[in-house]
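hey can u check if this looks right to u? its 766 residues, i copy pasted from the old doc so theres a chance i mangled smth
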Amino acid sequence: MLTQNLGYPRIGGQRQLKKASEQYWAGKIDLTELNRVAQTIKEENWQTQLGAGIDLIPCNDFSFYDQTLDTSLLLGVIPPRYRPVLSEVAHNQEIDLYFAMARGYQKDGLDITAMEMTKWLDTNYHYIVPEFTADQEFRIFNEHVFTEYTNARQLLGQKAKPVLVGPVSYLLLGKEKQEGFDRIELINKLVPIYVEIINRLGQLGAEWIQLDEPYLALDLSKKEKEAFEFAYRQIASQVSDVKLMVATYFDALLDNTALAVSLPIMALHVDLVRAPEQLDEVLALTPDPLILSLGIVDGRNVWKNDYEKSLKLIDKAVEKLGKNRVIISPSCSLLHSPIDLDGETALDPEIKNWMAFAKQKLNEVRELGQIVDGNQTLLEANKKAIQSRHASHKVHKQPVKDRVAAITDAQRTSAFPVRQQIQRERFNLPAFPTTTIGSFPQTDEIRQLRANLKKGELTVEQYEQSIEQATIDAIRWQEAIGIDVLVHGEFERNDMVEYFGEQLEGFLFTKNGWVQSYGSRCVKPPVIFGDVSRPNDMTVRWSQFAAAQTDKPMKGMLTGPVTILQWSFVRDDQPREVTTNQIALAIHDEVQALEAAGIGIIQIDEAAIREGLPLRKAKRPYYLNWAVKAFRITASGVDDQTQIHTHMCYSEFNDIIEHIAAMDADVITIETSRSQMELLHAFAHFDYPNEIGPGVYDIHSPRVPSTEEMTTLLSKAADLLPAHNLWVNPDCGLKTRKWPETREALTNMVAAAKLAREQISTEIVR
């Protein structure tokens, strides 16, 4: 019985790739050094998986920024606006083109926007959205996949397994940039290039090739199902001497089961962590000689595998198919998992014994195979760890459970039109009021302050004095450029989730539990191990201090319960909605404390609410109902004059707009600049009643937009929504940006708002 892995974290154990990429972008290292760092990470990853006894080890799962963008470059899917960049860089410097597509390009007299970025299915990982035209052509544009396989084969031999985004999912992950065609129709042009790629890999010696087709776990139209059938029939008829494995994950195949098992492939991977119930139907329909890869080790969480549960699934598959037609695997790529638990020396030993990171998950895959072969010692040790967690008093707190059980639906006292008038009279803001999403650049000096505090080189008083001065400086600068609703900058916060988790019971934190969010952006999610409660105020001290420094409105900044849940590693021993309600009650208490402290505008970010949306439409209403209820719990009980904001980023809203409206936030801010306000169509079609701040400034790129560009975006927004309900703000928080670009961009943004007040009728006076 073979073992395999679908993908491995590529940032390096000490985030070496992040540091090297940012140094390359800053011109501090050259391409040779960047490639050296990347090669070292790849070889370490391969050696780790080889040492763990994995039979099929992925290659081409490494990426400098994003694997979907890698696929676009491989296939020559380069938007026309980047042709000037392509002519500016030498062929061996095509990585500069690659980074321009991801981050935008603003030099050499060129000013080119970045490609759109959005969430990878229901994860917090972001991918670069392919752009397609009706006359789209495909070709092998670069050689990366072939050189990487050659390098991997030298170390791994036949264990090296190239990984590609499958052709159908690649098209479905993209967007049409012209009207009048369906991108899935490009499958006829795309398949021959995949055939060429696969055959070349086969000629280089590849025995297995993994094609990721996550869309097989989503709702598919008749045309999309036909595209799968066509693509794989064509590939199978033109490819020889290569074993193809199609990998699905994040949900069950359901009505796509018959389609998936009938594809002319050697093996099919299914996610039995997210959807163990699908195994019976998959086994009933699996034809001979199709091999089944069982995704039974959770690739998206940090908890130790329950071997007894996994063995029941393995035994069922082996009984039906035999050992030679079963592969043991993680549920998905381990990209979404921290790298190595061994380095977490400060964790509570009892809780650490319940956990597993990417390296340990490889061992779990191997050990499950060994248990099948008769090693009962491994099984008994696992049982003890699982039982310890179930019985631990550190996990279960009865008062928290009782408070959640007593929850009823929550709502504001008055309807939005009543609140809107009261709030306008209280704050007296101009038309197109300006604000930011919350954070300002976290400079090296700010990070060093935090590090020095942790090392004991600063007292708490010295640290807080420095943070206070940074806050005052940020307030004075905002006042100087004319921002209407200020933020304190969040200089005291390490991360928008970690900061809160550190002050809530039921959370723990790792030292090096980093995962990639996008590009060089890495996050270190908290771990929710037990019942959640709020013992003390979390943000009141800094919000009060900031508000006392200015006569302008100052926003209190909180992270919402669904986002805290989504951006944490969550308990898997109770329903997610129960954990969310525990967090919601804690945030509710903080909202009440901020209001009592005189903070009149409170932002409760729910950046990840769409991220938690089930992939299957039939499952969505249940999730959306409890997610919306959790937000309403946080804002319930505040006065009508208190203005509640929320923020959502990088999401499509068309299919959830009704539920966004049901959240009943007074103001919502969203990402819209990369899509050129395209995402606002959902709000316009729905006739969204509350106020909205469509982002006019893409903070995920160092590019500085001009005043004219932002004014044009505001004009587009005013064509879609009532101008008197529009705010002006960036797409997201500015924590990851540098101060020079931030100052220039926000100055331009304020100027754009002033122009909009002159040029665009707001119909009513604020």
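The longest strand covers residues 291-297.
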